[in-house]
Amino acid sequence: MTRQRINQKVLLALLVLVPLLVIIITLVLPDDSITFMAEWRRDLSEGFDRSRLISKTSSKPSGVSCSSQRRCPDDHISFFIHSGAANVMAPKICIQNKMVLGSVINNAGYGINIVVLNGKTGEVIKIGHFDMYSGEVKPLLEVLKSIENGSIVLMASYDDPSTKLNEDVRKLIAELGSSEIKSLGFRDNWVFVGGKGAAVKSNFEKIMKNDNAKNKYDNWPELIELQGCIPKYLE
User: Fold this and answer.
1) Which long-range contacts (CB under 8 A, 24 or more apart) does 211-219 make?
2) Which residues contact 66 (CB under 8 A, 6 or more apart)?
3) Which of 63, 54, 86, 62 has the alpha carbon at shortest distance from 222?
4) What's the CA gap between 166 and 52, in Å, rounded?
5) In angstroms, what is the C-alpha Rg of the chain?
6) If we measure between CA atoms, which residue out of 202, 181, 217 comes closest to residue 61?
7) pLDDT at residue 46 in the model
8) Mean pLDDT along residues 162-188
9) DSSP helix/strand/coil, 25
10) How far apart are CA 143 and CA 162, in angstroms?
11) What's the CA gap between 206 and 222, in Å, rounded?
């Protein structure tokens, strides 16, 4: 067999094997597999306060969709939140790609919107909204006091979240891991995910201050979107 024929056969084999190898790699090892596994190990080792967070500000809310832009490990709970927009569009909270609070299911309202989850299973325990402009703070205070250790708490503002807030409520929300609740002001936009008994600062929080020089919607700032993976509570 001549060298030329050998080279032709080698080239033909490469032309067949290389595309096949690319297909196998694509199917078996997705592009983000290495990054995903590294983040997973980090989340498991570092716990609630360091879990992966995806957050952004946006003037285009995601409508009725709850599809997450990233996958979460089996021992995590996925979430997606957007705050209200001015006094026109209500906030939305999704758990495991399912809407649990929003205008579409008619259970969102002005003020502070809350969803409480069982931290072990992701099951929804409580849903509520509390008008902090013309309502009373006592019902919110009672709900916060009733939250049990191991619960995950998600909150989103709509219109005005702060006028009726008192120090007792701010303290209880701070104990869930909030850093921004102390400075939350009139018509600020705010989203937050914390945990009862976690005793750590949450990285799942974002605030957009009401500033007439920067506001997106006249007397209100633009809405905020936040999504990520929450480790399930382990005793």
Assistant:
1) 216/59, 217/85, 217/86, 217/88, 218/86, 219/86, 219/187
2) 80, 92, 94, 97, 98, 99
3) 86
4) 31
5) 23
6) 217
7) 45
8) 97
9) helix
10) 17
11) 12
pLDDT in tens, 125-141: 999 999 999 999 999 99
- Mean pLDDT calculated for residue range 82-105: 95
Which tokens is 152 given?
């995950």
Q: What is the pTM of this model?
A: 0.74
Question: Which residue in 174, 170, 196, 195 sits closest to 185, CA to CA?
Answer: 170
Supply angle C-alpha 131, 135, 140, rounded to 5.
65
∠ CA 51-176-45, nearest 5°, is 25
Q: Which residues lie below 8 Å from residue 54, measured CB to CB, with a gap of 6+?
A: 69, 70, 226, 227, 228
What DSSP element (H or E) covers 190?
Answer: strand 189-195
**Residue 93 reports pLDDT greater than 70:** yes
Query: What is the distance between the alpha carbons of residues 133 and 187, in angstroms, rounded to a whole number?
Result: 10
Q: Check pLDDT > 60 for residue 170.
A: yes
